[in-house]
Design brief:
Length: about 300
């Protein structure tokens, strides 16, 4: 006999759905046969296959240990470097990953396999259930590299989403903009998106469907024709940083869509989410691409 205590990650799913995932080395027919033979109790009571499990339910399995082991296939542990996952930090609640440039955060209609979320789900396969998968708390544009926070449990996802809404998670970026930027400064306005062109515009006043945006920036180093800048994102709108810097006449290097110029082999925005501050702790990484660019200046 074996007893399983249901957690929030397994709750809110039918008993049969849970057992089909738990016993991953047998057939659906055999799982339903075991249910019909009443080999399971929840909180001491025989239940049907359509019973929805609840948090802290006690599921008793009336099978020999050897039989249970035979019905289960061990999940193969995948090392991060085997799947190209650059992990900065990980604990029981969260995973902080350095997303490479050119990779989507989430799957879309054109790309499913080569996305950060898909790769993280493969790495954390043992935490993926029908009702929950580890999820990113924020996102980065495809051609923006940098740190992304994933919540590994349902409870931590609620916590970090709340912290993000309350602006209690600090998000900082490194970029190189064209021209000599005076600073520090900030850009406030109302962002509106052209869905056809996939491009945003920052307006001075609120209009229908526009969203308030707020970006702060500070100068790290000035060069003859460029400026290395740290940016703090206070609202998380699509293309917010790119449009903000373009709106003050200093587009990001390589960001052709927002008025930037191609430089050498850089034809997309030179932008990297390099720092997260969570519960007062700083998580930080650098951008090899930005470092290589400024070394040439």
């Amino acid at each position: 006999m074996k007893t399983i205590i249901i957690t929030k990650n397994e709750a809110d799913q039918r008993l049969d759905r849970f057992l089909l995932k738990y016993f991953n080395n047998t057939t659906r027919t055999n799982v339903y046969k075991l249910i019909r033979k009443k080999m399971f109790k929840v909180n001491g009571i025989r239940v049907k296959e359509d019973y929805f499990l609840k948090d802290e339910d006690k599921l008793d399995i009336f099978l020999q240990d050897e039989t249970i082991e035979g019905l289960m296939k061990e999940i193969v542990t995948v090392k991060p470097d085997q799947i190209g996952l650059d992990i900065l930090f990980e604990n029981d609640d969260m995973l902080i990953v350095n997303k490479p440039k050119g990779m989507l955060t989430h799957p879309d209609k054109d790309e499913y396999k080569n996305t950060l979320a898909t790769i993280v789900h493969y790495y954390l396969a043992d935490l993926c259930t029908k009702t929950f998968r580890p999820a990113p708390v924020h996102r980065l544009d495809k051609n923006t590299s940098g740190l992304i926070l994933f919540a590994k449990t349902y409870e931590s996802l609620k916590l970090y989403n709340a912290l993000m809404r309350e602006r209690k998670i600090g998000k900082y970026y490194l970029t190189v903009v064209e021209g000599t930027l005076k600073g520090p400064g900030e850009v406030k306005g109302y962002l509106i998106k052209d869905e056809v062109k996939n491009k945003v515009t920052i307006l001075k006043s609120n209009q229908d469907e526009s969203k308030f945006c707020h970006t702060k920036y500070s100068v790290l180093k000035r060069y003859r024709a460029y400026t290395l800048v740290e940016i703090e994102l206070l609202t998380g709108r699509s293309h917010q940083i790119r449009a903000s810097m373009a709106s003050i006449g200093h587009p990001i290097v390589g960001d052709v869509k927002y008025g930037g110029k191609k430089v050498d082999d850089i034809s997309t925005q030179l932008l990297h989410g390099y720092k997260l501050i969570i519960d007062g702790k700083v998580y930080q990484t650098q951008s090899k691409e930005i470092e290589a660019f400024v070394q040439k200046l």
